[in-house]
């Protein structure tokens, strides 16, 4: 491969690619072919890409012609991205959530997210591997594993470092420069965790900011798609292309929704100056020494950049006993609703049928079992159980009124700061509030976990806000990124 192309495309961001295309140094077709070569050469060691879009070169050529003849649609015109394998595309690609039961499933139409990105000119390189059913299949399943795609590996240390989940393939592919950016989805940690572990920027938006129509669900109360990128600016560009109101997503019609089609004006290299950031030390207590030092240095960086660090702050919900009933009940209804409208090639139409299919094809489908699917299937699938309503109400009360909103209100905060995807971030997930992680340091020592992976490797710094505080989070995260610039590409040899 041409070395000059490597110089242009390794670690390239959306803005630099647009400049190269506009100046004639590059075309979308050349860019796509370069990524496809890297996928063929490097991805056998990562298992991050489930399938390549068979029409991608033709689509890139068409967008190049449109650029010449009509001009660009916007900043995403001709930019190659990957989509997580639970996001519908109405083309020749499959949507399976990593399951062999949906390996041949082709959606009838684009998800709302895919339609918006396509309209903005993005080129879909393919579908990224993921933890099967977004890690809601088995209590023992390793992050990054799917029966359809196998185990995804972290490019900074394949087979050694934790890859994070469930948007594992999206993260590994972006980190290894197999695409410009990717779209992941998160219920609780599924964007933030792999982004943190792969030295990326990952944003989970406020629930209600981005449509969920056409995305295989876990829970209506917490699911959202979001960008996974190498820079904060790229995350802002992608998010702005995904905020159109979806008439079929009721959460997008709730009072107080604040959406923008361009989040780049909020990026400010001096954005930490005067920012009030809370330090929730309760959630740092179980960190090992190396990672504890990372968050302490991050706090110092924020302070040095002019932030007012409120240290410590407490959340009344810190010692709450959480349950998982909302996810348990909503998964069955959401999955049954999705499968009832699935396109061709779906071998199952209900959660009942999925469990039976897995049992009948156990060698291929049940490496880690399916106890979580069975647990969810014990519910009615109608959301009529009192336990569900009680759990939903308790989640919102604890995570909002006695959680994030309490801390922000009582201390007049802009955001809270956490390390990576530690336990406290589940509070944000239950609240439906936004959070963004930015590349932090690389830890050389670590503790080996039960899954065999160590806690060493890239560590993200995560900022959490209240509902629709994405502009504030972008301002703070961009300033932190510009002050530190910790990200570096993994070794090409993997």
Automatic annotation (TrEMBL):
Residue ranges of coiled coil: none
Keyword tags: Hydrolase
Protein origin, superkingdom: Bacteria
Uppermost EC category: hydrolase
Enzyme Commission identifier(s): 3.5.1.4
InterPro entries in UniProt: Amidase_dom, AS_sf
SUPFAM superfamilies recorded: Amidase signature (AS) enzymes
Domain (Amidase): residue spans on this chain: 32-417
GO MF terms held by the record: amidase activity
Name the record gives this protein: Putative amidase
